[in-house]
Amino acid sequence: MKTLLASLAAILVSTCVMAETKPINLSLTPEIAVHDSSTFIKGLTLSIWGENEQSSLALGIVNGTKGSSSGFSWAFMLNYADNYTGVQWAPVNYTKGNFIGWQDGWVNYTGGRMKGLQSGIVNYAVTVTGLQLGIVNIAETADSSVQIGLVNIIHSNDEWFKALPEELAPGMIFVNWGF
């Protein structure tokens, strides 16, 4: 009897989980959409303003994601996410937590660890592993990273030229690094 109840519970739970994953979402706002913002989208998202956790191609004016999302997010104004893996292309890309992949836009912000490439006018990340390519590049800490741009700042580089070759300087024109 216990085995039967456990099996039924497993089927019920897995059915509920599968029922919350959809292949496509169309939205005007998070509240006016084919699927509500709690539905996981695995496939395609077309939005004026969308906000779903996803593993998809997201095309829109404002693309938002909750939780840990992945894919290719291309927006005409803004991409925002809790955590994201993949590609974000928009004039402004904002990731509250960790980002892995490529952020390309005028302003790119990662509030946690950024692993990959940030290319834009202004790039900011708390911790960078990878490359920041822009006019102004800012990192609180650098973990195997290079910055190429007009103004490059790594706050964890304590002194100017004292830790060569691992660290260059706290701030530098054209290129800076921390390993």
Furnish the topology, listing elements before pairings.
Elements: H1 2-19, E1 21-27, E2 40-51, E3 55-89, E4 92-95, E5 99-154, E6 171-178
Parallel strand pairs: 1-2, 2-3, 3-4, 3-5, 4-5
Antiparallel strand pairs: 5-6
General description of the model:
With 179 residues, the chain is mainly beta. The protein has 2 domains: 21-74, no CATH class; 97-179, no CATH class. It is built from 1 helix and 6 strands. It has one helix at 2-19; strands at 21-27, 40-51, 55-89, 92-95, 99-154, 171-178. It starts with a helix and ends with a strand.
Briefly characterize the structure.
With 179 residues, the protein is mainly β.
How big is the Rg? 20 Å
Mean pLDDT: 88
Distance between the termini: 59 Å
In percent, how helical is the residue content? 10-25%
**Strand portion:** over 45%
Order of helices and strands: HEEEEEE
Q: Count the strands?
A: 6
Total domains: 2
Number of helices: 1
Going by helix content, strand content and strand pairing, the class is: mainly beta
Largest sheet geometry? 6 strands, mixed
Question: Can you tell me the residue ranges where pLDDT is under 50 for at least 5 consecutive residues?
Answer: 7-17
Global morphology: elongated
